[in-house]
Structure formats: C-alpha cells, structure tokens
Write a structure and sequence with these properties.
The protein has six helices and eight strands. The chain is of the alpha+beta class. Strands 1, 2, 3, 4, 5, 6, 7 and 8 form an eight-stranded antiparallel β-sheet that branches. A hairpin with a 3-residue loop joins strand 3 and strand 4. It is globular. The protein starts with a helix and ends in an 8-residue tail after the last strand. It binds a DNA duplex through strand 3, strand 4 and helix 6.
Length: 202
DNA sequence: CGACCGATTGACT
DNA sequence: GTCAATCGGTCGG
C-alpha cells in the first residue's frame, strides 16, 4: 500500500454509476475509518449489489426512514441494523433519488489490526491465523472490527472520517455468484469476490 | 397495535 | 449440517 494513493479519496464520480459496475470496481479498493481510537484500514475483497427494481433490496418497496440514505447521492455510507444485533455497511451508488447500494461483505485487514482484534474479541484475545481471518470475513464482522454502527449511517465517503482509496491493486480474477442470505433475487449473480482471497466468506 | 422476519453470526450435533 | 439469539422495520388488521 503506497501512501500517496492511500491519502486520496475516490471521487464522487466513481460512485455515481450503476451499482453492479461500482461493485466490481470496489474489489481491491482500500476502506479507511479514522476515529478518536485510531485508524483502521482494509482491502475490499467481497461485495454485493442491490438496486431499486430488485426484490432483495431494502429500496425495492420505496423510500423509508430506514433506507433513506440509499436514495442519496453516490458516495455516502448506508448502515443498517439487522437480526437484533448486527450492523451491515453499504456504499451508496448512482445519482440522487436512485436507491442503489453495494454491501461490503468482507475485507482483508491492512492497518489497525490490534484495534480490530479488540473490537471483535476483546482485550485478552491473542492474534492467531484463525482469528485474523475471523476478524473481517463477513459483513457484520467487518462492521464490528471497523467500529461501524448506526452512528456512521449517512457518512460522506469523501470526508475525513471514512473514505476509500485506490492504491493501484487490481484483482487477478473476480468471481461472480448468487447473493447470500436472501430469499428472492437469487438468480442475479451480483455477489463479487476476489478469487482465492482468504477473507471471502463461506 | 401485534406478528412476522431479516443483505448474520457463533455455538453446537 | 442445524439452530437460537435478539430487536427494529415493515406490514396486516
């Protein structure tokens, strides 16, 4: 990871495109979260696209208080609470009034691994190969490790707290598959992952 | 209002 | 492989 790339947030134009296009392009990008506790960063290795005319999407039945951020301009973070205990984070895509987003399902940890360990497992846990992978190999695990909660819902990804960067890394091979954990819309192959990456879920 | 259920995870057979 | 945890969002009456 080269610092000069890492410092530059992806421009608004990157996000103002179709969700499926942005989803593929997000693979390999680095996501940063800078808080008072310190800075954490990871490479995005697995994503899923969700659109307005997609029955699996929160935006399918129209704009509500919960999914409002999905209809904002591209480049904002949509965070939702689910199963009574977990958060999931999405990158909002497209123009304003278009309810599209890309779910971040897994990242490869790069910076602030100690911080992530603490947020996922607590103080006494020691680093091993197993829990290094368990750190961020799922959408709610990623949010927990990165300290992303409902407070981060609506955060501008071109700001100073949360942003994405391109360090020049390009995936050798991208895998397409059916999205996970949904009942409708399984026929759409809108889950994208970096082939062979250890942090890809399942 | 009440009932159902989820873009998940971790523990367990 | 199965299943409970746990609660806000959404929808039906």
């Amino acid at each position: 990871m080269k610092e000069e790339f890492a410092l530059t947030p992806l421009p608004r134009s990157f996000y103002r495109r179709a969700a499926v296009t942005v989803a593929k392009d997000l693979l390999g990008k680095i996501i940063f979260h800078h808080t008072r506790q310190g800075i954490v960063a990871g490479r995005i290795v697995e994503v899923e696209a969700y659109t307005m005319n997609d029955p699996a999407s929160h935006s399918f039945r129209g704009r509500t208080q919960r999914n409002d951020v999905m209809f904002w301009d591209g480049g904002y973070l949509y965070v939702y609470f689910t199963y009574g205990m977990h958060f999931c984070a999405n990158v909002v895509t497209g123009e304003p009034e278009v309810g599209e987003a890309v779910l971040i399902r897994a990242v490869e940890p790069l910076l602030g691994i100690e911080r992530m360990m603490y947020q996922r497992f607590g103080k006494e846990e020691t680093l091993s190969r197993s829990n290094l992978i368990q750190l961020t190999n799922g959408p709610a695990k990623f949010c927990e490790a990165f300290g992303i909660t409902k407070k981060e819902n609506g955060t501008d990804l071109l700001g100073q707290k949360l942003w994405l960067s391109d360090d020049g890394f390009r995936p050798a091979s991208i895998r397409k598959s059916s999205r996970i954990g949904i009942r409708v819309g399984k026929e759409k192959l809108w889950r994208f992952s970096i082939e062979g990456n250890l942090w890809v879920s399942r």
